[in-house]
Structure formats: structure tokens, C-alpha cells
Design a protein that fits this description.
The chain has helices spanning 2-14, 77-86, 156-164, 176-181; strands spanning 37-38, 47-53, 69-75, 93-103, 114-126, 135-139, 146-147. The protein has four helices and seven strands, in the order H-E-E-E-H-E-E-E-E-H-H. It is globular.
Length: 186
Amino acid sequence: MKHTSLSVLLFVLLFPATSAFAQTNLGIAQYTETGELRYPTNLAEWIQSGASLGSEYGEEPFDPQNPGAIGVVQMEPNAYRYFMENKTYADGTMFLLSFYRAEGKSEPQLPGFVQGARFSQEIHVLDKGRFGDGHGFFMFPDRNATSTRIPEEGNVCTACHIEHGDFDGTFIQFYPDLRAHLGRDE
């Protein structure tokens, strides 16, 4: 028994990159040589994690008659599978937030709102190995092919996520399947 424990300890010390405690990087976020994030090509495959109505950035109070945008959060499928298996995020995990205009009076729907035109997207990359603060935020307002990271210094996105995100700087409190998987469902 002692021989087995000593062997495991030596293995972990000699080969730390292969230990269970090493940070996995999914390698799914693709960057240019200058560090810009490439716009993912497989977004139709991403897993919807949450949605909101009227949660744009701004100080205006919510108006039910004119609710603003519908925000849809999706998670890259490999990152989703890793999270479901490990209950943690791997480096390289990506979340996509897309904003759509809320449209009412679309026939033949019942009263309410549907997603209209998409007008903005942003990607949140979790990567402690790549980013000093572990978070990279990239804006894609016009579906550009690449985007430069919002600078770390004074980044309000990162500051808000770290202060208000319920799990590793993410708003898992608004993602029903993910929070339930962690046993945090009310």
C-alpha cells in the first residue's frame, strides 16, 4: 500500500502536466498571430445556457412595453461537455452572448416578444494560462472575422464578472442547466 502511494506521488511530481490537478486547455479558441480572437464558425452547434429580456448595458429602467433586447448565452460544446463531466471550466472555455432586438406583433404569435435581428455579439474566453486575470472579452458588433481583446487594465466586463458572477467569473446564476448541475438550483 505504501509503495503504491509513493509511486503515485513520484509520478505526480515528475510528470505534473499529466496529473489530475493540471489545468486542461481545450484549444478551441483560435487566435491570430497578433492575439485577436477568430470568430467561431460552428456557432449553430453551441449549447444555449441562458436568455434574458431587457438586460442590455445601461441605466434605463425596464419598460415592459418596450423591453429592449433579448440576450442569448451559448457555450461552446466541448467546453459544455468538459463542464458537465468535471463541474469546472477548462482553460479555453468560451461563452457567446448575442443581442437580438425584441419584436412584438409578429403574426401569428400570441402576445409577447420574439427574437428579431441580431445586432451585437461578444465572446467571453476563460483562460488562466493566456490572460493574467483569467478572462478575455472580445466584441463582435458586425460579425467581424477577428476581434481584439478588451484591455485588461480598467476592463469593466471582467470587474463585473468577478464581482457578480456566481461561479469562476461567470453568471452561472442565470444559466439553469449549469447551476442545476452544480446543485445550485433554487
